[in-house]
Design goal:
three-stranded antiparallel sheet, eight-stranded mixed sheet, about 190 residues, mainly beta, Cathepsin D, subunit A, domain 1
Amino acid sequence: MLKYFICLLTLLLPWAAQAKLYKIIDDGGNITYTDIAPNLDAKEYKLEGINAINNPEYNMDKLSMVIPYVDEDGAMIVQGSVNGVAMRFVVDTGATLLAIPPVIAKRAGLYDVSSTTVIAQTANGQVNVPRVTIKRLTIAKVKQINIDATIQSVSTKDPELGLLGMSFFHHYKMNMDHVKKEIRLERK
């Protein structure tokens, strides 16, 4: 009899130990869950069963990722890194590949004697540039591996400014919010 009581107690204990859960949405739209009531009028949030299959709230492939940008002279500039080397990029969805400036390419170890060259169309005409593969690319918190890029200067004013092209964006559906100054990406 004692065995059955212990078994029953073991099954019921997790149910009895569940805490109340509160959902808080701040003025910026950020959602936080807590077991401490933020105020006396707070409403309890009932957590339903979690089913990660076909549920966009728990399926990481369907969640959107946000990349903040700053507007500099009409250009969208985002922060990122190439093989761990920090740099800034101009967002250019009309560009096929990323363009990494030579000074960053050198620090990131992108120069390779076996690199092929491709013809790039620039504002000043066509140029031959090395085509390379970036091992690790991070833009805000979005990470990709083995991304095709070219090594070329993008700006005479900022020799460390790169170009973020479609070899990064083609994996995503993209929405731009110019009020919040953010690019929202969702996996295709």
